[in-house]
Amino acid sequence: MAYISLNCEFRVFNVLPLVVFCALCVDFTRTLLRDLCNGRLPSVYIDRFRNHCSDASGSWFDSFTDLTLSNFISTCCSFDLAKGKEILTLQRECHARRLDALLRVLLVVQQLLQENRHESKRDIYYIYPAFFQEQSVVDRAINDICIILQCSRHHLNVVSVGKGLVMGWLRFSEAGRKFDCINNPNTVYPIPVHVEEVKDIISVADYVLIVEKESEGTAALSSQFSIISVSASSAESLDLSLNHDGRGYPDVSTRRFLQLLIGKLRLPVYGLVDCDPHGFDILTTYRFGSMQMAYDAKFLRLPEVRWIGAFPSDLEKFSLPPQCLLPLTTEEKAKTEAMLQRCYLLREVPQWRSEVELLLQKGVKFEIEALSVHSISFLTEEYIPSKIQAGLYI
Amino acid sequence: MAAMDASSVYKLCRHLLHCPQFIYCAIQRCRKSDELCRLSVALKSSPLSDPQIVQISISDTGVGSCLEEFQDLMYAPDPALGGKWGSKLYFGIGTEVSLSTSEIVDNLLAEFTRFLQKKVAIELMFDCGDLPHSRFGNVILANDCTSFSPASNIEHLKSGLEDYIFKHGNSLDNICRSCFSTNLNSSNYSFSLPVASGCLKVRSGVACCTESKKSADQVMEAVIIVSESSDSTICYTFMYVYFLTQCTVMLPPEKQKAGLGRSLVKKAIKLALNDLKEKNAGVLLSAHALKICSYAPDLAKTISGLILSSNDSNFQGECISLLGLQGQNFEKETVENYVKERIISVIELNDRKPQRSREAAPSLFEDGYFQEPDFLYVAFEEGEEAIDFLE
């Protein structure tokens, strides 16, 4: 049984030296080989984590009437508790394939750690493209390794490609390199890939604004008001992208950077996303983390995030013209319905859930840019300032 | 001595005319005698004669010769046979029949050898006359025939299998398509090859069942013969199951209904199959196990890579020792092959286990973990793919 146990305290402090992870890799291989040489079928136990379940009824609260540990674990969607295990063995072909990929990625990781080099997930894919066949195979293997070794991805020296952007009233340094956003408020800076190297954070901003996509509007906002604007990608790059599947979803570096900023600066954080199922999903990814990386949600989620817009209820409040509205597709409706089942909505952000219900009820969507239909400066001069001032965020 | 079946004799007669029939009759005479009998077949060639004449002598020390069995010889030489054959008869202490032919001696010898090896424990001698360097002496020594003792049922079965294929009209060079209908490359395969080279895998299983102290044991022996093609893809061409002995008292009808006999057959077959798998690594693996085995080379490559690229020399030493390798310096391929063997071995081991005792590989998601349509493992939610697509 290949199962590694690691003291969680080390992990919290994030101070494990490379040599420890090298040792963990070695332990894993050793256990695997021992099984093989003793005529046992190797079994790799992988804890499964999730950041929500589909119990939208809120019965989670009722379970506290019976606070036995087993009941608590079985009904509570805790981010930090494993929800079942998967056991990979050489009995099923899909497991053999997955184990094959897992070990191949582990081999790369072991080399990265030994040589103290960093690679992105994409780089790893391109080392053996024919073997992996698709990026998701590498992604899954990396997540599996993180769960087995009980560590975060950056501990494996696997980094994001880096697509997050930051601008506004902020100054910081990363590995000796200075990021002076304050002096160039119209300039968008890339969020550093090695977030753990970020130091000397200084800011006079009043709040942090997360936007789905960096655009001219948000740039104007950053330059006029004392805010820090963070986005997962720029609108320009999204326009160039042929595949919109990943648009606006924050990568690990962006979320870790935000967590660092909020932890250091203690600023309020607002999320501004398109009024559609994707926008809402992006917002939940910032606040609750993603399902794929639920095992690391503790280090990636941002419970401080408040939703500032665009709300489905804005549609009537700001009299958006029909030409700005698009009907929800069948897929989008299905996605919305599925999202409504997420247990955390009712439990933690019931107002978000009400807005999403409204989205489904109205059956139409619109982008942030639609708010500028009456005036180009409406978003920056009226919409956001008024909402913050009146506390119209949820 | 083994009894010949009529069809074998008939087949052989196509080539050897009456010889097998004479041998058959000689065996019958030996059987009738209470004494230990001797049956000899001697081929004597006269290489200097033109055409080359081969004299075949079949003699026995049995009893009860009868002229009718040699009746056909009275009409020889048969013009239909090209006048190749002639014959003589001797009756003395035993019986001896002598035939002469101008057939090619190598063909004759091969046919006799195969026939006698299969059918009878006997001496076969070949005399090359006065030539100084005889090519053949005793082809089958009497001592070699110990393997034809009644206990060697499996050998008889192999032989029977060969006969079965003959019955389907095979010759040495052609394959019966109905017998070998799977993906065989006929150009480099002949049916006799697996038999001759020992490629036939033969194992048996004996199942016993004692009903009560009063009744006799029921014994069922199942023998399974598997021929494996030389193709790298393991391909099982046929499998025959024989029930050699069923030393059983008649089962009462109610017990027959209960399937007691059938369960005994099943048990015997199962034991034979287990025996076959036990003695022949990699044989009769399930298609599923074969699929998983196909991952072994890649897995072995990666695991050996993890071992050899580690900068932890203690770990390396431990792994090398676990693999049973000795020394200091190892080629990557050596380690890889050892790991691969281990992987295949555990897969095989697991495949032999009964289905229910194999470890379950459960999926432990009790509820709607995958309910959301977007939760496919494409990880785009992580967002990095967006930039990857842009690259």
From TrEMBL, chain A:
<dbReference type="GO" id="GO:0003677">
    <property type="term" value="F:DNA binding"/>
</dbReference>
<dbReference type="GO" id="GO:0003918">
    <property type="term" value="F:DNA topoisomerase type II (double strand cut, ATP-hydrolyzing) activity"/>
</dbReference>
<keyword id="KW-0812">Transmembrane</keyword>
<keyword id="KW-0799">Topoisomerase</keyword>
<feature type="transmembrane region" description="Helical">
    <location>
        <begin position="12"/>
        <end position="33"/>
    </location>
</feature>
<keyword id="KW-0479">Metal-binding</keyword>
<dbReference type="InterPro" id="IPR013048">
    <property type="entry name" value="Meiotic_Spo11"/>
</dbReference>
<dbReference type="InterPro" id="IPR034136">
    <property type="entry name" value="TOPRIM_Topo6A/Spo11"/>
</dbReference>
<feature type="active site" description="O-(5'-phospho-DNA)-tyrosine intermediate">
    <location>
        <position position="126"/>
    </location>
</feature>
<protein>
    <recommendedName>
        <fullName>DNA topoisomerase (ATP-hydrolyzing)</fullName>
        <ecNumber>5.6.2.2</ecNumber>
    </recommendedName>
</protein>
<dbReference type="InterPro" id="IPR002815">
    <property type="entry name" value="Spo11/TopoVI_A"/>
</dbReference>
<keyword id="KW-0413">Isomerase</keyword>
<keyword id="KW-0539">Nucleus</keyword>
<dbReference type="Pfam" id="PF21180">
    <property type="entry name" value="TOP6A-Spo11_Toprim"/>
</dbReference>
<dbReference type="GO" id="GO:0005524">
    <property type="term" value="F:ATP binding"/>
</dbReference>
<comment type="similarity">
    <text>Belongs to the TOP6A family.</text>
</comment>
<keyword id="KW-0238">DNA-binding</keyword>
<dbReference type="GO" id="GO:0000228">
    <property type="term" value="C:nuclear chromosome"/>
</dbReference>
<dbReference type="InterPro" id="IPR036388">
    <property type="entry name" value="WH-like_DNA-bd_sf"/>
</dbReference>
<dbReference type="InterPro" id="IPR013049">
    <property type="entry name" value="Spo11/TopoVI_A_N"/>
</dbReference>
<keyword id="KW-0472">Membrane</keyword>
<dbReference type="GO" id="GO:0000706">
    <property type="term" value="P:meiotic DNA double-strand break processing"/>
</dbReference>
UniProtKB/TrEMBL annotation, chain B:
<protein>
    <submittedName>
        <fullName>Uncharacterized protein</fullName>
    </submittedName>
</protein>
<dbReference type="GO" id="GO:0030674">
    <property type="term" value="F:protein-macromolecule adaptor activity"/>
</dbReference>
<dbReference type="InterPro" id="IPR034566">
    <property type="entry name" value="MTOPVIB_plant"/>
</dbReference>
<dbReference type="GO" id="GO:0042138">
    <property type="term" value="P:meiotic DNA double-strand break formation"/>
</dbReference>
<dbReference type="GO" id="GO:0007131">
    <property type="term" value="P:reciprocal meiotic recombination"/>
</dbReference>
<dbReference type="GO" id="GO:0000793">
    <property type="term" value="C:condensed chromosome"/>
</dbReference>
